[in-house]
Design a protein that fits this description.
Blueprint (H helix, E strand, L loop, with lengths): L2 H18 L7 H15 L7 H13 L8 H17 L1 H13 L5 H15 L7 H13 L10
Helix pairs in contact: 1-6, 2-3, 2-4, 2-5, 2-6, 2-7, 3-4, 4-5, 6-7
């Protein structure tokens, strides 16, 4: 099986796991950490083009797990995180990782945030090295082993 096929299968499995825990994923901390990782993955290469922004926004607003929250609220938070990252990526990244780390003490939410990052990262058919690196950074911020997620 090709590496991408394995990843795609893994992402589908993760989405299924997320959906199974949907009722546990309703806190504001989870909402914010999820939007933070979505923005971090979208801007992983230091920039975000309009097509990528639109694709990630569509994924956020249609993801079954994130339907616990108003789509307009998610979109607004995602855009706010993107603004931090595009203004100064390194400084923004520190701030975004701090918001992700706020769910560290809730293992279900912490793992779900990483899974969302992986699902978003692979949504375009290519989970590149820069996207993997920022998801690994998020793992460290959450005290999770990247190897648990195949990173």
């Amino acid at each position: 099986m090709a590496l991408w096929d394995k990843f795609k299968q893994s992402a589908q499995t993760m989405q299924g796991q997320l959906e199974a825990k949907k009722n546990e994923l309703k806190s504001g901390g989870f909402r914010d950490a999820s939007m933070a990782i979505c923005a971090l993955v979208a801007a992983a290469d230091g920039s975000i083009d309009p097509a990528e922004r639109q694709r990630v926004t569509a994924l956020i607003t249609t993801n079954d797990v994130l339907r616990n929250f108003a789509a307009s609220d998610l979109e607004q938070r995602f855009e706010a995180y993107l603004a931090k990252l595009t203004a100064d990526f390194e400084l923004g990244k520190v701030s975004v990782l701090q918001d992700i780390a706020k769910v560290k003490k809730k293992p279900t939410e912490a793992r779900a945030v990483i899974q969302i990052g992986i699902v978003i990262g692979g949504a375009d058919g290519h989970f590149d090295k820069t996207e993997q690196a920022v998801v690994r950074d998020a793992c460290f911020a959450l005290d999770l082993a990247p190897v648990e997620f195949g990173l």
